[in-house]
User: Fold this.
Amino acid sequence: MTITPDADADIIIRSGINGAVTNSGTQHFSEGEKRFYDKKYLQYVQTTTQHRIDFVFTSGIELALNSNSVDIQPFISMERRKLFSVYTIPVKKGESLTITKISYAATSFDKEYTDKTTREIQEDCLAKLKVQCSKGYNALFEESCAKWDELVWDNVPITIESDNNFDQLAIRFAQYHLQIMAPAHDSRLSIAAKGLSGEGYKGHTFWDNEIFTLPYFTFTQPQIARSMCLYRFLSLEGAHNKAKANGLTGAMYPWESARLEEGEVTPIWGAADIVTGEPIKIWSGFIQLHISADVAFGIWQYYMMTGDKDFMQKYGYEVILDTAIFWASRFEYDENDSKYHINGVMGPDEYKEHIDDNAFTNYMAHWNIKRAMESYTSLMKENPELFDSLNKKLDLDKNYNKFIEIIDKIYLPQPRQKDLVVPQDKTYLSKKDIDLTIYKNQKNVCEIFRDYNLVQVNGIQVSKQADIMILFLLLEDLFSADVKKANWDYYEPRTLHDSSLSLSTHAILAADMKDRALATDLFNKCVQIDLGENMKSSDAGIHTASIGGMWQVVVYGFGGVRMINGKLRISPILPDAWKRLHFYFYRHGQRLSVDITHDEINIKNLTGTDEIALDLNGEEAVLIDEFRKSLRRVQQKNED
Ligand code: IFM
Assistant:
């Protein structure tokens, strides 16, 4: 900070470390130890109360007058959970006083410190801070900019040329947040539902990652995606424990995850029930099961996009097989229809609890078992050594027989004959249909709870968020365009988008249906969640899934890009206001550039030599990279 007074002045600077910050009224730290060094550096060490993690925060303050360093001794003070340096500096009219504060944060959980004592960590942090201070702010800023350019702005920038600059800003906002929320350095951690921006959901990780944020990294920074997938492999112990506790086998992933070994951490009680006055039970941790298939799906997409065999052999196949084993143990056979069902669950739509045969859950479980069966046969043939070790570990031969028994008898809800509507679950379509207009036009989310409690909402044909729609997005080749449209017409009017995980999916499907105006409108609404006029909407933190969803609407929706069964499909449709959309992504390590206008699409392979087969607007095409020809030219060549 630079201050240039317009009169001679004694400027007092009071700066320090405030350890009295609370977390929704909860104090997570011990009082700790405060210390000044050389009257220039401050250090505060506090320990978390639950996991006993040391948090070491070290700051250094530098002063300069007209860019020349000044050596003024501060008055130092300590208060409860606070320490400060107070400087009084005489500054003449027109002179500039610059205050630079550089801080270094570390914890005893950090990989480099796990075998160090607190004292050693403190000393190391102080030494590192001194190095950073000696470089100075400008050099650190340059280093930071160079890293941002390397990872994002020169690597996978997105350009939106439009009458409306806001969309360009919005997508950069999304990329910025996605980058800072990802713990790229450590696979023992993953992305929290609010990133690092707020206390909502206690820093826990949900399916938001695999379905909403992971795709961004899978497409643009595969090394971060790999780390996120590895987090799930490393959390298998918690998933096994959850399965065991439920009398099941295999990997039953926790609905909410935190530290690897902890397993399920979803809180049990939530907000007040407006009818009974009691806290509402949060059932997700007990019955929102689809997360296990979502994890497998995220890993499979990662594999399809990156071709990372090493990851699959070390970790990926095991997760796919282990989650399938869970599903096989969870299905219930019904002699009446000779089918396997999944009863008593919650699908993505959290307004429907304890339901049977949620379409999303059943289809995803089916998909999961299918992938596991393919993995079983291909590993047996191609990698017998790995097959043998997984066979021993997971009792694959026995489980494979179970898969064979189940797979063709899994109950997969089909479109109704009369209107092609797929029942979201066994009872949804027979529930009460009420006029939802006031809730569809609501200013704030969840206004339905002013009039109904959750038990009542359970009895109404109303959805909190995309459910069938997300099924159409993930397993899009299983459903015809007519089925998708019919279900859109049925479910969209009944979906309140009370979860921020909803609008992006609906926007992508609107783009898939080639409804440009609707897709644009839904995209704008999605962007408003964190960037709109409602300044309270992000109080508990930004909505990471919706931010991942913003990237998906731009690339999957308007860019029309999809990875389906290992094949890239591109079918763009730009909003009217956009003149051009240009983005980059990686496929099997090769950097592709996709440049779209209303008239033309130009795809280049910038780094590789693969011939890449594409489905371009429904037509087969081949991108020949070594000539760096545009796809349009390649197509013409083929036609010639
Ligand atoms: O995972 C989501 C869920 O789908 C809706 N409620 C909030 C969760 C965390 O974002």
User: Anything to note?
Assistant: Residues 626-640 have pLDDT under 50 and may be disordered.
